[in-house]
Each structure stands twice: as structure tokens, then as C-alpha cells.
Amino acid sequence: MVIFGASGDLTKRKILPSLFNLFVSGGLMRENFFVTGVARTRFDDASYRLLAADAVRKAFPSASGADLEAFCEACHYIPGDYNDDGTYAALGKRLGELSLLHATQGNLIFNLATPPSLYGPVTGRLGANGLILKGDSTKPFHRIMVEKPFGTDLESARELNRTMLRWVEERQIFRIDHYLGKNTVQNIMVFRFANPIFGPVWNSGFVDHVQITVAEEIGVEGRAGYFESAGLVRDILQNHMLNLLGLVAMEKPASLDAEAIRDGKSAVLRSIRRFDPAGLDRQIVRGQYAAGGGEAGYRQEPGVAPDSCVETYFAARLFIDNKRWKGVPFYLRAGKRLGRKETSVTVVFKNAKDCVFRESGIGHPPNRLVFSIQPEQKVSLGFIVKIPGARMCLSGQNLEFSYNSLAAAPLTGDYERIILDCMMDDQTLFWRKDGIEESWRLLTPVVSRWQSCPVPEKQRMMHLYPAGSGGPAAADELIRRDGREWL
Ligand code: NDP
Ligand code: BG6
Prior knowledge:
Helices cover 36% and strands 19% of the residues. The chain has 487 residues and is an alpha/beta fold. A nine-stranded mixed sheet has the order 14-13-12-11-7-10-9-8-15, with helices on both faces. The chain has a six-stranded parallel sheet with strand order 3-2-1-4-5-6, with helices on both faces. The protein is globular. Bound molecules: NADPH dihydro-nicotinamide-adenine-dinucleotide phosphate (NDP) and 6-O-phosphono-beta-D-glucopyranose (BG6). NADPH dihydro-nicotinamide-adenine-dinucleotide phosphate (NDP) binds at residues 5-10, 39-41, 81-83, 113-116, 118, 147-149, 226.
């Protein structure tokens, strides 16, 4: 694996520790494997190995010294600027030598963990310098992994697709969304399609609405430079949340083939009702954290403009205009610096109109199915039971399965799974060209409107919320107008 962006934050926090975990787990890639890092910082092999060891130790403090040494032996480094053909000439020569040394038969994965503006230029130079060969996806294979964000709007995503596809085939591109590497996210599809009891009720006849929440306690964590030009809709909704929505709403795929699953998710994205720029406020609310609970506000974070109008929160109401979901609202909300971390998907079922217990005078909650993605990892089904006693009193209770009750598997990390799948040529967990463009087709009118509208309107649409709170009141209003509440 060649890592572009080898000295960066993502490489240190996620990629190197995940590679190490694959290296030590169950013989998955102990042999015939090497890493070559490329970036401008003037490391050599020895100093890059120190960086790699440090990154791994931070993630796995109890890693064995022998394992760490063996892993670091397989790490190499080439310094150079990505805009300089000399870097690629040196890289090509080194890869030839390392391929022989580590007996990798010329198979290569190029992992682009660089600033997004470099995805296109790096792919172009890899192609022009003959390092990555188009169509060469079997023996030896040449694949390219690309981090998010993939484009910043529809036009830039299309342009990036065009640039990359000039040099490689679609099947050689692995567009990452690390959410899809989470076991609890993959479980949504298993739960739906392996348990036939849910099939008949998974539609507008039985489902009242769906809520998807991605709440984080952290703020922008030193990524203000990126965040100021992105905002939370680009950071979380365009990728992670639309993927969650796709898994909840898709039709049963014909098979577990990557294309069948990605066809299903793309069909959902195509059916989402377009936002109407005229009445945007009623469809999507944007917010930004202000100071609160001892934490600085977003505008006080280092690198953020003091008058920034970038959203760190949104709440949206979407409809999927197909037969299955006609009239069922999907409420999505996400935010930074909220009271607690929680990612979940809740399917709220309709209350029976002819419930025989209506007369018992006790309002009871409707059945709910909750997929807790993180930090709790569980599935729970809310239902009604009779409370012991002479009178007919009802109470809402939960039937629960927690992942804690299963023995931990050796590989539970999202990046491990993603890297492994790329090595195994399994595209299921990666975005396809049409899916990514469809997601931008939906969201580009929203982000363009927010960006281009006059400052007073921008300020009017921005709802501040105190750090550590549950988000802005306008988000509560969005769902309350429909007679519902956030759960
Ligand atoms: P960093 O800024 O920490 O790292 C960027 C890397 O790119 C550095 O290694 C830098 O090398 C290298 N680089 C930049 N320009 C050049 C150049 N012209 N020539 C050679 N090397 C260059 O970014 P992150 O690691 O945070 O992010 C990388 C990618 O991953 C981004 O696209 C980001 O959106 C995505 N991502 C990051 C996440 C995270 O948690 N960090 C989460 C999800 C996605 P050097 O400093 O040595 O010059
Ligand atoms: C990243 C976003 O893709 O996902 C970050 O850029 C966010 O802003 C992160 O914090 C959340 O990932 P996870 O796995 O911690 O939920």
C-alpha cells in the first residue's frame, strides 16, 4: 500500500494502526505486504518507522514489541511533492524494488489520504507516470482508495470522477465512507433482510416515521481549515447519513453482490424528494454552537472566522417518493458539541387506530426499533406489556440485543474492514460513481443557497445553540410542526 498523505493526521490515527491490526490479526497480511509513505516532510525509512511505531502505540498501547518491530520493517518512505514528476519517478523505482523484496507480485493499492484538492492531480500523475495501469484490476492489481470528501458539490464531484476515470476503471476506485465499515451499520441490512418478520411491516402502511441522529460531543478538533469550507451537511449528511438512510430504505437486493447493493442504495437516493430552495427553512434547519458549559463557541475556535456562517448542526426532513415510503418522513439531525455522542437510527411504527386498550386511559408509546450504532452498540425493540396488578395498566418496555454480549472479534475497527475489503476487491462498502453524484445532486442546491445568499439572510437562517446542549430550538420546531418529537 502506498499512502499519499503519509505524515498526516488520518494516516497516524487510523490508517497505520489499522494496517498494524491487520498485520497481527489471524495471519491476514503478515507476509507479502509493505507500506510506502509519500509526503513532503523529509523522513527517511528509519524516521518514518519511528512515526509509524508511535502512531501504532497510541492506538494499541499494549502492542507487542516484536510485532511492532516486524510491522515497522515493512514500512518505507519516499519524500516528495505530489506536483513534481520526480516524486513519481523515485516512487516507481522504489516500488519495483520493494515488490521483489516483499514478494507482492506487483499488486498495489494507492491510498489517497491527502487534502481533497489533490485527489485528481495525484491520480493523474500516477497514471501519466505509468504507476497505475487502467483496467489492471486482477493480476497484478492496481487499486486506488480515496478519502472523503469526494467533491464539494455536484459539478466538482463529476469533474473528479471524470479525472479519475481517465486514468483508472470504476472498479479500481474505492471511495471510502468509514461508516460502512462499522459492524452496527452493516447490521442494519442483515437485520432487515435476514429476519423475515420485519419485511411485511417495513413500509408506509406500518412505519410512522424514521429518525437518524449523528450527535457528537467533540467540536472541530483542529480541523477548522477544512470545516470552514465544508460545514456539517458536506461533512456528515452527504456521505455517512445518506448511506445510513440508503440501508434503512433500500429494497431487498437481488443478491449480496456489491453492484446489487449499490444499485439499491442509488435507487433510494434518486427517489428522495428534492429540496425546494424557496421554502428551505421548513425542510432543513442549520445551527452553529455558541459558547456553553465552559467550551468556546465555534466562532472562537482557532482558524474560524469571527463572523463565520458555517453550520455545525443541521436537522432535515426528507421524503422518499416511491411506493414503499410514500408520505413517511425521515428526520435527520447531526451536530458537533452536543450534550453526548450518539449515532442511532430509529424506526417508529404507527399506533393501531383500533387498539382495544385505548379505553384503559393510558397513552402508550408506539413500537420502536432502534439501531444504536455508537457508542452503545445494540438493537432494541420497544413494545407494550401489562404491569402486574389487578388493573389493566400498560407500560412500554424494550427487548434488547447488545453487541457487548458477543465475544469480541479480533477485527472490529471500521478502517480495518475497509482496507481489507479493498485488498479483497470487494466494493460493497464503497461509494459508486452514480451514488456519489446522486448525493450531491440532492444537496448542492442547499449548500449553494446557503453559500450564496446575502449575509442578513445567512444570519437569519443560522440558529445558535449553546455547546453541550441538545441543539437549536428551531430543530425541535421542524419536527414539532408535524406533531412529533425527537427521541
Ligand atoms: P492532514 O493535513 O493532516 O495531512 C495531509 C497530508 O498530505 C500530509 O501528509 C501532507 O504532507 C500531505 N501533503 C499535502 N500537500 C502535499 C503536497 N503538495 N505534496 C506532498 N504531500 C502533501 O490531513 P488529514 O490526514 O486530516 O486528512 C487527509 C484526508 O483524509 C483529507 O481528505 C480529509 O478530508 C480526509 N479525512 C480525514 C479525517 C481525519 O480524521 N483526519 C476523517 C475523514 C476524512 P506534509 O505535511 O509532509 O507536507
Ligand atoms: C468524519 C467527519 O468523517 O467522521 C468528522 O469528518 C466526524 O467530522 C467523524 O467527527 C465521525 O466519525 P465517527 O466514526 O467517530 O462517528
